[in-house]
Specification:
5 helices; alpha/beta; 163 residues
Length: 163
């Protein structure tokens, strides 16, 4: 059975609402042959990623960057999950398999830096972006919740079709 790993940092009601919506989409009744594993970013590790067939990431936008918790997840697992570095220590394009991933980001005023920072890291992993980034600013509206459900369902459906 394909495994979808959801790694998130959801410290606010807005992020909790989006995370719950993503999980509802990933666990929709129409897709019953995908195992969904949920880990808080500070608890997720390389073993979780290596056991997964696809990944969903959720983070807040903090001071123009991803949350410290999601950064810690990447810092502590990057090389073990296939991250590639160039000679100067920066991320290099990864080779090998291409696990599908999706991303949702919530910010009060701007999500640009957070999205850019996550995509820079994932670009150096053997992953491929399988859905547009869900960027939500300010209060979470009904259409944001709907988009989060769709994001979760999209990744689960991709894994179901591939499995």
């Amino acid at each position: 059975m394909p495994r979808l790993l959801v790694v998130h940092h959801s410290p606010t009601r807005s992020l909790q609402r989006l995370t719950e919506a993503v999980l509802a989409g990933a666990g929709t009744e129409e897709i019953d042959d995908v195992e969904v594993t949920v880990r808080a970013a500070l608890e997720a590790g390389a073993d979780d990623v290596l056991a997964a067939d696809g990944i969903l990431l959720g983070t807040s936008a903090n001071f123009g960057y991803m949350s410290g918790a999601l950064k810690h997840f990447f810092d502590s697992s990057f090389l073990a999950i296939g991250g590639s570095l160039s000679d100067d220590g920066s991320g290099a394009p990864a080779t090998g398999g291409k696990k599908p991933f999706g991303l949702w980001v919530h910010g009060r005023y701007d999500t640009t830096g957070a999205v850019r920072s996550v995509l820079a890291i994932t670009g150096a992993l053997p992953w491929r972006q399988a859905a547009p980034v869900l960027e939500v600013m300010g209060d979470v509206a009904a259409d944001d919740v709907e988009a989060a459900v769709e994001l979760g369902a999209t990744l689960a459906a991709l894994l179901s079709a591939a499995g």
